[in-house]
């Protein structure tokens, strides 16, 4: 009889070349997904900053009618910049969770890790780039909010 208190493995891990290359394809797919999130976050941050700058310059031009809602462009720009930062933070969390899952003990044989060696993990610069972009986004948000530029 099966003991209900013991957890059964969800699947059987078989060490074959197919499973190893499937693991590699999944790992690289996660990298591509993270890079897509980076592009989206940078686009939102850049577009938000550009909207604010464009409408501020437009208001400074002679012969241009004053806007009905002078702060609307600033608020829209801040919302887009904030959305870009939020997208980057969510993607960092998702990336780290998924990578940690792929490097878990269940997949260590498929990943090609030898027992007890955590140094063998494939490192990628995508996380460092994401953190750098969050910092740039925070600077852009504060620059627009505090009118630094």
How would you explain this protein's 3D organization?
The chain has 149 residues and is mainly alpha-helical. The protein has one domain (17-145). The protein contains 4 helices and no strands. It has helices at residues 17-60, 72-102, 108-111, 126-145.
Which key phrases capture this entry?
66% helix, mainly alpha, 149 residues, 0% strand
Number of strands: 0
What percent of residues adopt helix (DSSP H or I)?
Answer: 55-70%
> N- to C-terminal separation?
71 Å
SS element count, helices: 4
Unreliable runs: none
| Helix/strand structural class | mainly alpha
Could you tell me the radius of gyration in angstroms?
Answer: 23 Å
| Percent in strands | under 5%
Quick one: overall form? rod-shaped
Largest sheet: none
SSE pattern: HHHH
Number of domains: 1
Give the mean pLDDT.
84
Short description:
The protein has 149 residues and is mostly helical. The chain has helices at 17-60, 72-102, 108-111, 126-145.
Strand and helix map with partners:
Layout: H1 17-60, H2 72-102, H3 108-111, H4 126-145
Helix pairs in contact: 1-2, 1-4, 2-4
């Amino acid at each position: 009889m099966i003991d209900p208190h013991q957890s059964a493995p969800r699947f059987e891990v078989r060490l074959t070349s197919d499973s190893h290359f499937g693991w590699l394809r999944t790992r690289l797919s996660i990298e591509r997904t993270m890079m897509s999130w980076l592009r989206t976050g940078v686009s939102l941050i850049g577009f938000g900053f550009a909207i604010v700058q464009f409408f501020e310059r437009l208001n400074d031009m002679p012969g241009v009618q004053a806007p009905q809602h002078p702060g609307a462009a600033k608020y829209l720009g801040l919302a887009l910049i904030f959305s870009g930062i939020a997208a980057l933070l969510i993607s960092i969390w998702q990336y780290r969770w998924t990578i940690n899952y792929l490097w878990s003990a269940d997949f260590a044989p498929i990943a090609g890790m030898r027992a007890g060696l955590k140094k063998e993990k494939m490192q990628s610069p995508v996380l460092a780039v994401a953190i750098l972009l969050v910092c740039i986004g925070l600077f852009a948000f504060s620059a627009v909010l505090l009118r630094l530029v």
